[in-house]
Specification:
mainly beta, Jelly Rolls, 3 helices
Length: 330
C-alpha cells in the first residue's frame, strides 16, 4: 500500500510538472502572455490557449488581435489587456524600465501595485504615458486618447508634459496646448474591454487566494512577491509580499501571511467617498458579496493542455460559481 501511494504521488507530481509552465519556478517576466481568446497572433504566428504561460512578447515583437482579446503581464501586479482589432509592441521588458507601444486599437492597463523604481510607460501616437499610481488606465490609439479611470498619469507629447488625474482624459489630437477633460466613468463601464478586464481581474483574484494558501507561512516554492502559476485557472496570478492589495475593480490580492483573511468566494469592496483602495493592514470599511444576476449563462470553458476536465464549484452560501481547470472562451 505504501509503494502504491508513492507511485500515485510520483505520477501526480510528474503530471503537474509537465502541465504547468513555471510551477515552482517562481515568477514570469514582463511580456509574458497570460490569456488569449479568439484571433490572436504574435509576430504573425497564431497564438492560442496552449501558449499561455510559456510564450513571451519580446522587445521589438508585436501582439495583435482580430476578433479576440489578450492579456500580457508587465511588472508584478500590472496587467495589460488588448481589445479587439488591436496591436501592441513591446519596447522594453526591464523591471525598472517597462514600456509597450499601442500601435492600433484599444488597451487597458490594470495596476494593482507600482513601486517607486518601476518606470512603466505606454506609448501611443508619438506620446508616452507614465503610469504613476495604482489604478486603471485606458488607451485608444485609433482616436489618440488617454483615459485615467483611477490613478494618475504623466503624458509627455513632444515638448508638452501633462498630468492626467483620475476621471480625466487627454485628447492627443488637440492643437496648441494640451488640456485634460472629465469623462463619464459610469458610461465608460459599458465598454467591452472594461467589462472583459473586470472579469479577468475577478478570476485572477480568485486564483491568488487559491495559490497564496499553498504558500501560507512561507511554504516550499515561495520566492517572495511576484507572478505565480495556478494550474487550476491556467494563468499566472500576482501574489504580493506583505499585506492585502486591491485592484481598481475592488478585488483583493493577498500575501501568504494575510491569506487567512481571504473569503472562500470573492468579495468586491465598496469604498466610501474619498477612500482610495491600495495596500491595507485592516479589513476595508465596507464589504458586500458579489452575486450573479439570476438566469445568467455560465461561460464555456476550454481546458489547457493536460488540465482536468473543466468543472464548476459553488460556494456553500450559494452565491457564486467560477470555472476551474481551463480558460474562458468566446
Amino acid at each position: 500500500m505504501k509503494l502504491l501511494g508513492l507511485k500515485a504521488f510520483a505520477a501526480f507530481f510528474l503530471a503537474t510538472v509537465l502541465t504547468a509552465p513555471a510551477w515552482g519556478a517562481g515568477t514570469a517576466i514582463p511580456g509574458s502572455i497570460n490569456y488569449v481568446e479568439g484571433q490572436v497572433s504574435l509576430a504573425d504566428q497564431a497564438v492560442n490557449s496552449k501558449s499561455v504561460g510559456s510564450v513571451e512578447l519580446q522587445p521589438g515583437q508585436s501582439l495583435s488581435t482580430g476578433d479576440g482579446k489578450a492579456e500580457v503581464l508587465l511588472t508584478p501586479g500590472v496587467f495589460l489587456r488588448l481589445g479587439d482589432n488591436s496591436t501592441v509592441q513591446m519596447v522594453s521588458g526591464n523591471l525598472t524600465n517597462t514600456q509597450a507601444n499601442l500601435v492600433k486599437g484599444q488597451a487597458m492597463v490594470e495596476v494593482a501595485e507600482i513601486r517607486e523604481y518601476n518606470q512603466l510607460r505606454i506609448g501611443e501616437d508619438g506620446a508616452y504615458t507614465q503610469l504613476r499610481k495604482d489604478g486603471l488606465y485606458a488607451f485608444d490609439a485609433d482616436h489618440a486618447n488617454v483615459r485615467v479611470v483611477k490613478g494618475e498619469a504623466l503624458v509627455q507629447d513632444n515638448d508638452q508634459s501633462v498630468r492626467v488625474k483620475s476621471g480625466h482624459e487627454l485628447d492627443l489630437n488637440q492643437s496648441g496646448k494640451l488640456k485634460t477633460a472629465k469623462f463619464d466613468k459610469n458610461a465608460f463601464q459599458a465598454n467591452d474591454l472594461y467589462r472583459f478586464s473586470s472579469l479577468r481581474s475577478q478570476y485572477l483574484a480568485e486564483a491568488n487566494v487559491d495559490v497564496a494558501r499553498q504558500y501560507y507561512a512561507g511554504g516550499p516554492g515561495w520566492y517572495g512577491p511576484g507572478w505565480y502559476w495556478d494550474p487550476a485557472f491556467w494563468a499566472y496570478t500576482w501574489i504580493p509580499g506583505d499585506g492585502i492589495f486591491y485592484s481598481p475593480f475592488g478585488w483583493g490580492f493577498y500575501s501568504p501571511l494575510w491569506v487567512s483573511y481571504a473569503p472562500y468566494y470573492p468579495y468586491r469592496y465598496y469604498w466610501p467617498r474619498g477612500y482610495h483602495p491600495g495596500r491595507v493592514v485592516n479589513p476595508p470599511p465596507r464589504v458586500a458579496p458579489v452575486r450573479p444576476a439570476p438566469n445568467v449563462a455560465r461561460p464555456s470553458v476550454r481546458p489547457g493542455p493536460g488540465a482536468p476536465a473543466p468543472t464548476f464549484h459553488s460556494t456553500a452560501r450559494g452565491g457564486f460559481a467560477v470555472p476551474h481547470g481551463g480558460v474562458i472562451s468566446r
